[in-house]
Amino acid sequence: MEAPVRATEALTGLRSLAQGGGPGCLERNDWICGEYLRTRSQELLSATLQHIGITAVSVLIGLLIAFPLALLARHRRGVAGPVLGLTTVLYTVPSLAMFALLTPVFGVSPAVVVTGLVLYSLTILVRNVLAGLDAVPAEVREAARGMGYGPARLLLEVELPLALPALVAGVRIATVSTVAMTTIGSVVGYGGLGNLIASGMEGFFKAEVLTASVLCVLLALAADLLLLGVQRLLTPWTRARTGGRRVRRPAPVAKAVG
Amino acid sequence: MSVDAITGAWQWLATAANWAGEKGVWHRLGEHLWLSGVCLLLSCLIALPLALWLGHIGKGGALAVNVSNVGRAVPTFAVLVLLTLSPLGTHGDWPTLIALVLFAVPPLLTNVHLGIREADRDVVEAARGMGMSGGQLLWRVEIPLAYPLIMTGLRSAAVQVVATATLAALAGGGGLGRIITAGFGNYDTAQVVAGAVLVALLALLVEGVLVLLDRACDPMRGRRRAVRGKAPAPPPGPAPRQDPQPT
Q1: Are B199 and A224 an interchain contact pair (Cβ–Cβ within 8 Å)?
Q2: Is the pLDDT of residue A54 over 70?
Q3: Domain region containing A65
Q4: Is residue B237 part of a domain?
Q5: Quick check: A193 and A215 in contact, CB under 8 A?
Q6: Would the CB atoms of B180 and A97 count as touching at under 8 Å?
Q7: In B, which residues are within 8 Å of A206 by CB distance?
Q8: Is the pLDDT of residue A19 over 80?
Q9: Chain B: nearest CA to A136, how far in angstroms?
Q10: At what angle do helices A95-106 and B189-217 cross, to 10 degrees?
Q11: Residue A128 contacts B where some CB pair is shorter than 8 Å
Q12: ipTM, interface predicted TM-score of the complex
């Protein structure tokens, strides 16, 4: 009994797809709807901008905190264990619970979402910064020191450039997961495109949910490609050897320089 | 955190009425554990044979890596809502079950595949030279050598499933997340914090129990150090987890 109904449903779906979600798709509640895109473009744009803003601020703050933490963990090995352990524990807490725990601290505000996302990004960033700095060959460090480089100059001009591929790899992973997790911020009303997914769910509005979801994935991919491009620009010497994908093996990078 | 929120949450948790009944903690915990258990089992049934086989024949590396990269870019919330609005949404728990399995498969696939691929090639070749068949090689050499990464995959998948089951509440599913979303709905901060504490404790408990289980069941307990001598140094940190992903 059900099969013919499904078939006609699929057929109308296909037809509306072929028409590019032509007129009346809002009334029919189609998944894909050009009319929705036209009439709600302002809403979509502001949600996307909020999404980008929350993600960018979170990853930037995460990086600003992760870098000193990684340096500290490197100089005092006793600190490394607790720092990595704590960030791993934070990582295990589901995002809904994290935002819920932060709500009484900050009230219902973007700070809840940003703080939660910063805490998550720390795990990946600290680990990758540390791995990148650890992978700088001792000979390179010795040579720089022999040429009279002080600790600050050694860090900024030798170690940091060599650690950059691992660092950017970490930033890419953190950014992509942050874009996806920002959607959960809709529980406090600051979820960027997640707000649209939530309101679309409440109103059973298929086009809104699908459009916001697709935009979210596209945003993650765009951010990933952008960061990959930035890394290639900053470290032209790695291009010959690695595809920019070597997250955990930064050693060949150093070899290409040495 | 304000003191009010902590005492409020404590009072919420100390009230027996909040633990009983359809919307009580015990019922929600039951739903959460049942959903997580079923989905973990399903994901293992799908991912383990596939990853073991692909790793054994030495193919599918790109697939195993890309699956987890794509998994990271797709918001769990979006998948849950899309499945709920699809025709499947009228079939009870199915949207949640499918979403949970979808997000548990990537960590399993990636880690198990990596584990088998990175099993010391010399040892595998030696075993082959001793006349072991393909099946023997897989069961008696590759799997024991890949054990740490297989367990890491299992642990990631389990934590992932427990976390995703929390999000199911956002799309109207059951589980402990429901306590949090109900709290948000009633502007009841005490309930929100109490639910969050319960969810966080459950996630940490699952991770902890699996770490202990991992140590207790290691087929090469005490012998691994000798084998590891040749392997590259493990990455820093307590859990050399491949591609972690919070939810």
Answers
A1: no
A2: yes
A3: 36-257
A4: no
A5: yes
A6: yes
A7: 85
A8: no
A9: 14
A10: 140
A11: no
A12: 0.81
